[in-house]
Design brief:
Strand content: 15-25%
Low-confidence stretches: none
Mean pLDDT: 95
Distance between the termini: 30 Å
Largest sheet: 8 strands, parallel
Number of strands: 14
Order of helices and strands: EEEHEHEEEEEHEHHHEHEHEHEHHH
Structural class: alpha/beta
Radius of gyration: 19 Å
Length: about 375
């Protein structure tokens, strides 16, 4: 059945060679200062270019929107030049890659902003701790974006999309998931506004629509995707009626005719969201008729089964791609996947260890001889 995963797929103007996609994975290897992509990152993505589509790690659209140590950005010329190494490497191996555009909103700690608070839909505080350059610190209250500031943030997304085109990407994906800024506008636990961006789900989806329209102006709808996480609590971002909220978001995506929609729906061992919340993808599938990519905790067999059943058109794999750079080959050959149980030790550490030193299947076999 896994042969299904090796059928090509059309995502708008992007043709993928298979339906095994690489999900976005924050790895924290950009060069500091400046959050600049580097040669090591190009090697990492080159190794994984067998994926039908690589969705890059979340990438900050602005200084204001980036609050993760050594995560890359896309607002400066230096960052654009750094990303050119990555896109060239992927394209040389016959792969496709889109850039995931990221504004973390209230998750950005003031330490990243010269002591100023982060911004969000409303003045709220995320739970738990932020990762800062000087260690873990409790989150602090964000300030609500003023009505006249929202166009500036939308313009930051537009500028990031323009830079992504200069850097040679095949398209962009808006990060609308996991409790970051777009998600903070969508969900009613974090969006307490009383203006046209708050209240009913259609209003709360307005920011999503405006950002996507800006990205479409740059790329065309056929090279723009979006990631949503219609599950439960995500970094303290939750909703009292997820069916209504994400139904409204799905209608935006349908109306705009995006290239693809990716949904993160965790399985039993998932992160960033409760796993006891009913999956919203069947409802979203009825509203959004374009290519649908599902993500989280899949085996190859489960991925193929969901595609055959019409639940989705492709599956994006995250953590397995950390320790299996040639995941597509392992799936094709029915080979065992390299375990990732010890991967958390090196998810975010600097340097090549646990990043570009995982052997391919061929290298592992040769070493075992």
């Amino acid at each position: 059945m896994t042969d299904t995963l090796f059928q090509p797929l059309t995502l708008g103007a992007i043709e993928t060679k298979n339906r095994i996609h690489m999900a976005p994975l924050t790895r924290g290897r950009a060069t500091l200062p400046g959050s600049v992509p580097n040669e090591m990152m190009a090697t990492y993505y080159r190794q994984r270019a067998g994926a039908g589509l690589i969705i890059s790690e979340a990438t900050g659209i602005s200084v204001e929107g980036l609050g993760w140590p050594a995560a890359p950005g896309i607002w400066s010329d230096e960052q654009v030049e750094g990303w050119k190494q990555v896109t060239q490497a992927v394209h040389e191996e016959g792969g496709k890659i889109v850039l995931q555009l990221w504004h973390m909103g209230r998750i950005v700690h003031p330490d990243f902003l010269g002591g100023k608070p982060g911004v969000s839909a409303s003045a709220t505080t995320a739970p738990d701790h932020a990762h800062t350059p000087t260690g873990r610190k409790p989150h602090e209250q964000a300030r609500a974006l003023e009505l006249d500031e929202i166009p500036r943030v939308v313009a930051d997304y537009r500028h990031a999309a323009e830079n992504a085109k200069k850097a040679g990407f095949d398209g962009v994906q808006l990060h609308g998931a996991n409790g970051y800024l777009v998600d903070q506008f969508l969900r009613d636990s974090t969006n307490l506004r009383t203006d046209e961006y708050g209240g009913p789900p259609e209003n709360r989806a307005r920011f999503l629509r405006e950002v996507l329209e800006a990205l479409i102006d740059v790329w065309g709808a056929d090279r723009v995707g979006v990631r949503l996480s219609p599950n439960g609590d995500t970094q303290g971002c939750d909703d009292s009626d997820p069916a209504a909220t994400f139904g409204a978001a799905a209608k935006v995506v349908q109306d705009l005719g995006l290239a693809f929609l990716e949904l993160r729906e965790p399985g039993p061992d998932g992160t960033f969201g409760r796993t006891d919340v009913p999956k919203q993808s069947p409802m979203i599938r009825q509203i959004y008729t374009g290519p649908l990519v599902l993500n989280s905790d899949y085996t190859a067999e489960e991925a193929a089964a969901d595609i055959v059943a019409g639940k989705c058109d492709a599956v994006s794999f995250g953590r397995p791609y950390i320790s299996n750079p040639d995941l597509d080959i392992r799936i094709r050959e029915g080979a065992e996947w390299a375990p990732n149980a010890d991967v958390p030790k090196s998810w975010y550490l600097p340097g090549p260890q646990g990043y570009i030193d995982y052997p391919t299947l061929a290298e592992a076999r040769q070493a075992a001889e």
